[in-house]
Amino acid sequence: GRLEAVTQQMGYHPRYLDSFLKTQHYLLHMDGPLPFDCRHYIAIMAAARHQCRYLVNLHVLQFLRAGGDPQWLRGLDFIPPKLRNLNEINKILAHRPWLITKEHIEKLLKISEWSWSLAELVHAVVLLAHCHALASFVFGCGCEQEEGPGGRGSLKASPPGNQCFCEAATGNGCSQELLRINRKRSLDSCMELDSLRERIQRIHVETEGREETRLLPPDREEGEGRGGVQAARGLSPLPDTVGEVTGAANLACYMQDPDFGYQDFARRDEDQTQVFRVQDYSWEDHGFSLVNRLYSDIGHLLDEKFRMVDGLQSSAMAKRQGCEPSVFKRGIWNYIHCMFGIRYDDYDYAEVNHLLERMLKVYIKTVTCYPEKTNPEMFDRFWKQFKHSEKVHVNLLILEARMQAELLYALQAITQYMV
């Protein structure tokens, strides 16, 4: 249940890694509005939108450790309506965040048996954005391929010491208490794994007889073949590899409307009213205070992470492109936000084409908008003359710019609902 492949890549930038680990730990394991099992299930829903088995496997294991009901792992049809109702904004935020409206917020918050509180919804939205953006990083750096059958990941480089989830932050400001907790969790994981497997196997056996005669919905029928009926239901056969509890079969059970994906944001003259202008609603002036008020301290952690990625050294990258580091990073950040319809009035967008070569732009757009289409060859092909750490830096910019874009749209919609 650890993030070794991710932290190995982020370990090239240890101060950022420390900030990332603190934020992730707070979101998933510290006091907050949402129950712990629901947090991991929301992460599963978010990762499934991009078919990211690496993150789904991780959170299935942690969901069960948190006491989650194994029946929920059969898919969205088997979870409480309150959680299932989150599916719509999960889908929109993952692919076309500009479509989210205050009506989506109102629908979740309206008085009913399954209504969300504002604090719960903010926690859920931050989790969704975090996992969508992390899926981009996972695919962008090849971590997903390392998890697959035969591990076809081509990214062999790793930071000194082959750091793991807990060790990667040692000496870089991560609290000793956090390290102790994570070390204990990793030591316990092997002992827990057998009992978790037994629980899943028991659910398989109990439901096998009942479900054989039940007609599967049309969107569950694909997946026949390897894994048979279980795979078609999203109940993949139990794997042999430690740590991979759920499996390779079919993530479709965790999402609805799988064909809904990214579309280019309309930039025609008649659609200018749709453009999100940062001058009207920004993270610094609006989003930070709202999220911090409704979910204590998360705003400070997110803000630190945004500032940390902005402060990463990139002089070598910028020098190769013939510009100042701040200019180069801003070009990447604004290009990503532009793909989501977010505009800065004080920026000349002609600069993007000057700063970013075509292959780099193709890579950034793929990792940002449809990361599941990324392959290791794409990582190798762009910027052949650049260091591995510099390519990881680009992926960190993608992660944070994408996350902030989703948060801006969601928090603006929440603000409009509150007003």
Question: How does the SSE layout of this entry go?
Answer:
Layout: H1 4-10, H2 14-29, H3 36-48, H4 53-65, H5 81-84, H6 87-95, H7 102-109, H8 118-140, H9 143-147, H10 176-212, H11 228-232, E1 276-277, H12 283-294, H13 298-311, H14 315-321, H15 325-339, E2 342-343, H16 350-355, H17 358-369, H18 376-381, H19 388-418
Parallel strand pairs: 1-2
Overview of this protein structure:
With 419 residues, the chain is an all-alpha fold. It contains 19 helices and two strands. Strands 1-2 form a two-stranded parallel sheet. The longest helix is centred in the middle third of the chain and has 37 residues, at 176-212.
Task: Sum up the structure in keywords.
single chain, 419 residues, mainly alpha, two-stranded parallel ribbon, 19 helices, 2 strands, 58% helix, 1% strand
